[in-house]
Amino acid sequence: MGDYSKALDFYDKALKIKEKTLPPNHPSLATSYNNIGSVYDDMGDYSKALEFYDKALKVYEKTLPPNHPSLATSYNNIGGVYDNMGDYSKALEFYDKTLKIEEKTLPPNHPSLATSYNNIGLLHGKMGDYSKALSFLEKTLAIRQKSLPPTHPGIKRAIDNINYVKKKM
Questions:
Q1: 13-51 burial by CB neighbour count: b if 16+ within 10 A, else e?
Q2: Which Pfam families match (predicted)?
């Protein structure tokens, strides 16, 4: 609803309860850190978003196996912040980490893979590498066409992204 201060208040209350009742590296704390980071991300306060996303990542790295989906989510969140900040090489580094986990752990037509291919494709487009962008965006479209109903807006978005990149080439 856009009421960021209220969201932060409630997420902070939840975090304080968890900090009093859970061990310091409990994954539930990481969930709270991610929630708070997401609010700051939505507010455009990228340094605060990174601070909380990084706290979540540190907990996950200590407590989860290296290919756990929560690690992929954390890498993706951090990549998204760097993307929003215009630090595309840093964003690519984190999006690549996300993709590596997903390629090892998800079936080849999973929608999360399509999202990762899309994020990386759009990033390559922003960086001016249109042939790489096109390759990733075509993978996005192929997965979405196999896994979504034909009228799903994600398919149209993928086609629009491909057409935009083709015009730039």
A1: eebeebeeeeeeeeeebbbbbbbbbbbbbeeeebebbbe
A2: TPR_12
